[in-house]
Write a structure and sequence with these properties.
Blueprint: E1 11-17, H1 27-39, E2 42-49, H2 53-65, E3 71-75, H3 86-90, E4 96-97, H4 99-113, E5 123-127, E6 130-135, H5 139-153
Helix pairs in contact: 1-5, 4-5
GO cellular component, one term: cytosol
Keywords: Molybdenum cofactor biosynthesis
Protein name: Molybdenum cofactor biosynthesis protein B
Length: 173
């Protein structure tokens, strides 16, 4: 972290993918929203949708089309059951995939959940100059993803490089 750079707050939307959660018991979405606000970012919007690839894709598509949303963090739907469809919903929207995100997330998760981490299909990428992160639905996984990966990469002060400093160049041709 470099204290010589000023923090640049960005607008982040949070999507909870769940067939059972409501705003009252959405602990994972709350962990992400509270984390980004505590870091100094702005919560662009928070939404809950059913684990349906078309509802997920519709919500994410609206945000990536909105120039005021810089990043989306989706929680839930990254497992291997028949209803888990977040990667299938989001991957077709991505212009570029950040393979390292899922790889490092699973490496970090291994410390807590051992071989169960292989069930995680956490993915990230960029679409229309909007960063998208898809993480498992547990509040522990959200905390790991935010605290150990996303928070620092969405902080302009992070050295040697971060995703915020690349934002002006994301639409280059």
């Amino acid at each position: 972290m470099s204290e010589t750079r000023e923090f640049i707050p960005i607008n982040i939307a949070v999507l909870t993918v769940s067939d059972t959660r409501s705003e009252a018991d959405d602990t994972s979405g709350r962990v992400l929203a509270e984390g980004l606000l505590a870091a100094g970012h702005r919560l662009a919007e928070k939404k809950i949708v059913r684990d349906d690839i078309y509802q997920i894709r519709a919500a994410v598509s609206l945000w990536i089309a909105d120039p005021n949303v810089n990043a989306v963090i989706a929680t839930g739907g990254t497992g291997v059951t028949g209803r888990d469809g977040t990667p299938e919903a989001v991957l077709p929207l991505l212009d570029k995939v950040l393979d390292g995100f899922g790889e490092v997330f699973r490496m970090l998760s291994y410390q807590d959940i051992k071989s169960s981490t292989m069930q995680s299909r956490a993915v990230a990428g960029v679409a229309n100059a909007t960063y998208i992160f898809c993480v498992p639905g547990s509040s522990g996984a959200c905390r790991t993803a935010w605290e150990s990966l996303i928070k620092d990469q969405l902080d302009y002060r992070t050295r040697p490089c971060n995703l915020v400093q690349l934002m002006p160049r994301l639409l280059e041709k």
